[in-house]
Amino acid sequence: MADRDYSHRNDKSDDSDGESYSPRTPRRTPMACQFCRGRKMKCDGRPICANCSRRGIACSYVPV
Ligand SMILES: [Zn+2]
Ligand SMILES: [Zn+2]
Prior knowledge:
By secondary structure, the protein is mainly α. It has a domain of 35 residues: Zn(2)-C6 fungal-type DNA-binding domain (CD2-Gal4), CATH 4.10.240.10. It is 31% helix and 0% strand. The longest helix has 8 residues. Bound molecules: zinc ion (ZN) (2 copies). One zinc ion binds next to helix 2 and helix 3. Pfam families: Zn_clus (PF00172).
């Protein structure tokens, strides 16, 4: 399954420029929960991230 994605990435040289640059959908950036976002902390993206679990608060993600 992952084989397809891998070969597709190597093809970016043939593709037109700007295709891979999409600021609207930053897929590489892991999603941060609300708490981490507000505090600009590093979120591990878990259902209950480390920062929230450590503080014992509710970890919530807002779909963009
Ligand atoms: Zn978080
Ligand atoms: Zn969290």
